[in-house]
Amino acid sequence: MSLEAFISKLDQLQAAATEALAAAANREALEAARIEFLGAKSGQLKAAQKQLGTVAGPDKPAAGKKFNAAKMAIEQAFDAAQTRLESAPPTSKDGALFDITLPGEPIRIGRRHPVTQTIAELKDIMGRLGFTAVDGPEVEDEYHNFEALNIPEIHPARDPLDNFYLAAAEQQHASASPLLLRSQTSTVQIRVMEETQPPVRIISLGRVYRPDQPDATHYPMFHQMEGLYIDKQVTMADLKSVLRLFATSYLGRDVHVRFRPSFFPFTEPSVEVDMSWGDRWIEFGGAGMVDPHVLKAVGYDPEEVTGFAFGLGVERLCMRRHHITDIRYLFANDVRFLRQF
Amino acid sequence: MATLAPLPPAIPMIVSWNWLKEYLPLNMSHAEATERLLMAGLNHESTTPVADDLAIDLEVTSNRPDCNGHIGVAREISVLFDELLQLPPAAPKATGGDVNNFARVRVAAPDLCLRYTARLISGVKVGPSPDWLVKRLATVYSHKEKWKPVNNVVDITNYVLLECAQPLHAFDYRKLAGREIIVRRAKPGESLEALDHNIYKLDPEMCVIADSEAPVAIAGVMGGASSEVTTKTTEILIESAEFAPLAVRRTARQLKLHSDSSYRFERGVDPLGVEWASRRCCELILEICGGELCAGVIDIGGEPAPRAPIVLRLAQIQRVLGIEVPPSEVRRILLALGLTEPVVDAPAVTPAKAARPLPVPEPPVSLTLTPPSWRRDLSREIDLIEEVARIHGYDKIPEDASVPMTSSHRTDWERVHDTAGSVLCACGFDEAMTTSVVPAAWNEAFSPWCDAPALVTGQPMLEGADRVRRSIVPSLLAARQQNEAQQNEAIELFETSRIYFPSPTGLPTEQWSLALTSGRGYLFVKGVLEALLSALGIGHALTAEPQPGSLLDSSRSARLLLDGELLGFLGEVSPVGKKAFSLRGAATVAEIDLRLLLARANMIPQHADFSNFPPMSRDLNLIVDEAVRWSDLEATVRASAGELLEAVRYAETYRDAQKDGPGKKRLLFSLALRSRARTLTGEEADAARDAVVSACQAKHGAVLLA
Question: B5 pLDDT band (50/70/90 cuts)?
């Protein structure tokens, strides 16, 4: 083959290849064009390479140079086409374009109530500290709600106006002990201690009821968590240490707790507990050493065992955690609220 | 705290900084003093400058009524800063005749009035109070906008109340009919115009101070206008008494008349201090208003019995607090707080003993101390340990003690409860939280569990709500309505809580229930419940039986049984029910007993091997009468398909009255067949299908659609 014919042939081949590669509209077309022109076995370029041998000897270097230039041009055209296709949105055969920005198919997942979530968190932390959750009745007798908790009959906390006392609509026995919706979860601790010998390490969690006009911070029903630990040699240092571990777990960083004296019938000494929050102290709840009267009432010997108890309002923790400004949101059950948590 | 036990709210005690200097030198800054008081139990709320004084707002807990007066607060500071406390002598000079010759006091209600003292001063000059007195009162009352000094006598009684927390009252003695005081219950129909010039209706549970004709004061609450001390008064009777706390509380509450006096009587006054306050008051009156004090005092009830001493074993401090406090510090604190050691005669030193070397004194193992009359909260060893702790400082208690480890476990109940919540959330339900006490109408609307009337609360929890609920469903329907009113979409709610079934004796039965409401239909909600059973590993099939009732559509509601036991109720809300709860859209509800789920749950599922041979399936389309129920047909299918049957899968119900005739329906379902031993042949699958078809034909008159 003459040099001119070979060059002309290569020019045609290069023109056809670049056109085909540029026209390839999808991966399949590009691949077909690649096989057609650059295929290792029977591609047109391969065929041209074979014809290179038929060019006369003195013309061979020029022919070889021309071949290499054509090969490089076709390969560049292929790379360009490939890049173009990779960056272009894929289309189906009928030309419809899949819109990857469409929303996913809606899957409705419900949410746990924020108070439940807070309770779960509290239980989880206290569980790791060895406290087992216990349950008890919400409708209580006066003995468990007051007397066993060292709240005597004359105590103002027993005022009927400050409690939800009950009367069965009809068949209430005149002699029966008055019942009421429990005003604290300490009642559960009494019931557990009545039935269990020390050591006792429990938390009781649940609804409690006190007549309060609903406002931003009050609701006649709310939740408490109370912890109780009774054993030989339990001290206030243990109480402070457990509460610090709790606070550190809950807030996720090293915090300190501080005790301020307070007064609760169920405990003595009694303290208010504050946790350090940044550079200030925030109220956490109440705590103290279980009053010897209470230990005696459940049949424990205060000379043998000591114990501590602490309690806190769940809603308050929940509201602070989620920046909820009004407790009434928690019980209004608007799904726009519930779905935020 | 609002947690361990409910307590009445504490009212603020405003203390004048300058006034405190009357009792001890204040060598510390105001900030130091309030910080130490805060950490010792007197919560410092705020401090406001008033003229050249500071009004310090302290919160006093109900067990410390002694701190409702300046002396109590001063004593706390004296203990905390180890300063000497100095009290006024309260020793007025009595130059008049015997008080018993001029006045009579009779206590006819000794259960309401525990002690009553009276002193008489004649010839007083009532006028304005001196500046120093007005200034101190002005500081303490700076939060009361309308406060003004009254006159020297009245201001002095208020001053002494604020000094020692003992309320006092001065009567214009000439205005008392019969010149006598009778402390008695009010008579039916009696009323009194009090110092605030309102007229209060009294009842026989209230204690009054009366003269021979009518009440002149509401005991412990407020004096009457008729015997008010005015500039014309010359003869006064000073009352200092102790009234029963509960009676005062009840009266103040009933009359909605809360005073500085009633607040202090409700919390209990110092029974010994009653008489001291009387003397102190007379001392100031003589000094400021002049006059002549009658000799002696009328004292009904008299001094209380002496307090029993308390033994404090020093080792108990470490046992309770976890820290040691030096015995000398323990003793210092308790003595400074006003406790006293019994007087012990010093042992006579004999010459023989003196000759020997002095024995090293053994460290004491206990202290025996008598609490002061103003600290009724101190009667036991633990009370003294608390005193030591709060004065020594809770900050001394370490927060890094090593508490022994112990195991704790999640109970099956918690697991079931959590699984129920997770499944409901996964099914698209949001968790609601509704109150346990509901209006009567809701209570009546749905109570399938319990026929006994609901428990009723003595006062409503929220407006009109006084029934302790026997079902959660009405509460959820009300929540549904609230959401509909907001035009919220996808109102899918669930709640787990207790419902309460009254018992003729003792506590009611409290049943943990799961209730839900959906905008979708019966079969969707049933599917949710079946998913929950599956998640809990409960293999028993749910059976449904018709359930009459008006809230639910009787053709689309059921009672659900699990293995023959009542699990709960499910149904679409009827038009009547929708109207009752003002619902616009479709609603389905269900409520199930979580205790039964707990009893049936398979908490630790066990692995069961399965076949790896390929399955085969056969579709069936049977024409049956409308009355044929799927559960019956399915039972027949399961009984007749043979051991190759792996599952029966319901597909749909189809009706074509033209082709199949009226009263007929087609049940479409498929059989999943598989062998554990081999690959099935088509003939085996066909044989199983044929057996099913002929059994269904025989039992239910089913016809296979060709």
Answer: very low
Kindly state whether residue A99 falls inside one of the protein's structural domains.
no
In this prediction, does ipTM exceed 0.90? no
Range of A45's domain?
Answer: 3-87
- How far apart are alpha carbons B393 and A259 in whole angstroms? 9
Conformational region of residue B704, where left means phi above 0, alpha means psi within -120 to 50, and beta covers everything else: beta
How far does the CA of residue A113 sit from the closest CA of chain B (Å)?
5
Phi, psi of B291 (to 5 degrees): 100, 180
Model pLDDT for residues A330-339, shown as the tens digit of each residue: 999 999 999 9
Amino acid making up residue B614: P
User: Which tokens go with A66?
Assistant: 């021309």
Is A260 within 8 Å of B39 when comparing Cβ atoms? yes
CATH code, domain with A244 = 3.30.930.10
Same-domain pairing of A77 and A215 = no
pTM over 0.80? The answer is yes
Q: Based on the domain organization, do A131 and A174 belong to the same domain?
A: yes
Q: pLDDT tens digit string along B310-336?
A: 999 999 999 999 999 999 999 999 999
Asked whether residue A154 falls in the same domain as residue A280, the answer is yes
On the question of pLDDT at A171 being above 50, the answer is no
Which of A43, A68, A87 is the last residue before a domain boundary?
A87
Nearest CB among B4, B431, B461 relative to A267 is that of: B4
- Find the angle CA(A259)-CA(A131)-CA(A295) to the nearest 5 degrees: 65
B509-518 and B588-593 beta bridge pairing: antiparallel
Give me the mean pLDDT over the B666-682 stretch: 95
Q: Which of residues 321-340 of B touch A (CB under 8 A)?
A: 321-323
- Give the ranges where B511-591 is alpha helix by DSSP (H): 522-535, 575-580
Do residue B4 and residue A112 have CB atoms under 8 angstroms apart?
no
Q: Answer yes or no: do A220 and B398 touch at CB < 8 A.
A: no
pLDDT tens digits, residue range B520-569? 999 999 999 999 999 999 987 899 999 988 999 999 999 999 989 999 99
- Give yes or no: residues A54 and A166 share one domain: no
Task: Tell me the chain A residues in contact with residue B380 when contact means C-beta distances shorter than 8 Å.
Answer: 292
Cα Rg of chain A, angstroms = 41
pLDDT surpasses 60 at B7: no
Do A158 and A42 share a domain, yes or no? no
Three-class SS state of A127: helix
Q: Does the CB of A188 have a partner CB in chain B at under 8 Å?
A: no
- Domains in chain B and their CATH numbers? 12-81 (3.30.56.10), 94-130+139-300 (3.50.40.10), 310-344+364-393 (3.30.56.10), 412-600 (3.30.930.10), 616-704 (3.30.70.380)
Q: Do B431 and A286 count as a contact with CB atoms less than 8 A apart?
A: no
Binary contact (B321, A237; C-beta < 8 A)? yes
Is there a domain that residue A49 lies in?
yes
What pLDDT score was predicted for residue A173? Answer: 52
pLDDT, residue B48, reads 94
Mutate to test the interface with B, among A236, A242, A257, A275 (most CBs of B within 10 A): A236
Report residue B259 as tokens.
């005073």
**A119 and A81, same domain (yes or no):** no
Tokens standing for B544? 């449904």
Measure in Å the smallest separation between the Cα of A277 and chain B Cα atoms.
Answer: 16
Q: Is residue A64 part of a domain?
A: yes
Tell me, yes or no, whether A131 and A267 share the same domain: yes
Per the domain annotation, does A94 fall within a domain?
no
Q: Which residues contact B501 (CB under 8 A, 6 or more apart)?
A: B449, B450, B452, B470, B508, B509, B510, B511
**Number of folded domains that form chain A:** 2
Nearest to A271 among B394, B458, B490 (CB): B394
Q: Which residues 15-74 of A have a C-beta within 8 angstroms of B?
A: none
In this structure, the answer to whether residues A77 and A204 fall within a common structural domain is no
Establish if B434 touches chain A: CB-CB under 8 angstroms.
yes
State the CB neighbour count (10 A cutoff) for residue B21: 11
